[in-house]
Amino acid sequence: APELRPGPTPEPEPNLAHPRPEREPGRQPRAGAGAAPGLDAMAPAERKERLTLPRCLGLAALGTAVIYLTSMMLMMNNGGDIAEGTSNAMRGAKSASAAAAMMRGDLVPQTLGERALEEARGVNCGWKPDEQLVGRCPKGVLYPTGAAYKDAAECAAGCCVLENCVTWQFRPDTGCLHGPDVRIGFEKEGTSKWCEADPPTPWQGQHTKLKPKEKIAESAKHKEACDEATWDPTELQTQCLGLGDMRRGEPSKSAANCRDACCADEKCDTWQWRADKGCFYNSKGFRCYERTSEHDFEPFQGQRKFLPDRDYSGIHHKFKDQGGKA
């Protein structure tokens, strides 16, 4: 029988509906269907583009690591103007940022450990000269630090080196308080946070009505509080807030005059007077401070850091600086 041999494989007919695209010059055939081309299979322009970004990222990371290690070695060896300059620049930028944040009142105080506190003693802190923060700061202006600092010296040292502390105060009953920049007395510029300029001193004052809208002719409290023989000016010794502006003229000359002015006003139910402050009265106050300890009328110890960009102009003791003339 004749030997059968296979003939040549016929060429497939071209698909005229979806013709096969011709390969670009210089491109190698793909390794398999759906496989991404390797670098060797790419055109030179595409291969260069694919390699550039990883190389740049790698060089950047390497450069950062070299700079960091060099700076650390110099600082560990306690030498080098480069390391010192870098450290000072970073510290200066951080201090400026922290000071700005504390002026806005954004930060809550921190505390130091014993070793850091000991190192903080004797540091030049840049306190505002010739100033003691002896007056009360309303609740929420400064923040308690707990038992971290046992006296005024430690409280000051802690605030000194903490970049987020501008103001400190200490008194035995409150302990150490740290916080942002504050205005004192009648300073006009700076932060919205405010503290008294004068040390806590007992006020003279009294409620003249038990109910704000009570008619004075029908009020037993009014008759008692407004009578020279039965009034009690020691009823409100702690400051009451929300009594409005100081009353100029006769009311501010004495506690009795302040009382009489309030008693003559149908809307008034609370008055207070102090020799260095003058007379205040109004239909109502926000609240009055409560007596909390035997130290209530003792001055605080405290200071503020001097901030170069801050305007400290203004009168600290408005009534007293005017010679007591209301």
Summarize the structure.
The chain has about 325 residues and is α+β, with helices and mostly antiparallel strands. It contains 7 helices and 13 strands.
Describe this structure in words.
The chain is of the alpha+beta class. 29% of the residues lie in helices and 13% in strands. It has helices at 44-76, 81-104, 114-120, 152-161, 220-225, 255-263, 318-321; strands at 143-144, 167-171, 175-179, 183-184, 186-187, 194-195, 204-207, 240-241, 270-274, 278-282, 287-288, 301-304, 314-315. It has a 4-stranded antiparallel sheet with strand order 1-3-2-12, covered by helices on one side. A hairpin with a 3-residue loop joins strand 2 and strand 3. Helix 1 packs across helix 2 (81-104). The radius of gyration is 39 Å and the shape is elongated. Residues 15-19, 31-35, 74-109 and 321-326 have low confidence and may be disordered.
Coarse shape: elongated
**Span of the ends, CA to CA:** 140 Å
Structural class: alpha+beta
Rg measurement, Å = 39 Å
Please report which band the strand proportion falls in: under 5%, 5-15%, 15-25%, 25-35%, 35-45% or over 45%: 5-15%
The number of helical segments is 7
Order of SSEs? HHHEHEEEEEEHEHEEEEEH
Helix content: 25-40%
Strand line-up of the largest beta sheet: 1-3-2-12
Task: Please count the beta strands (DSSP E, at least 2 residues each).
Answer: 13
**Which residue ranges are poorly predicted, with pLDDT under 50 across at least 5 consecutive positions?**
15-19, 31-35, 74-109, 321-326
Main sheet characteristics: 4 strands, antiparallel
Task: Note the topology.
Blueprint: H1 44-76, H2 81-104, H3 114-120, E1 143-144, H4 152-161, E2 167-171, E3 175-179, E4 183-184, E5 186-187, E6 194-195, E7 204-207, H5 220-225, E8 240-241, H6 255-263, E9 270-274, E10 278-282, E11 287-288, E12 301-304, E13 314-315, H7 318-321
Parallel strand pairs: 4-6
Antiparallel strand pairs: 1-3, 2-3, 2-12, 5-13, 7-9, 8-11, 9-10
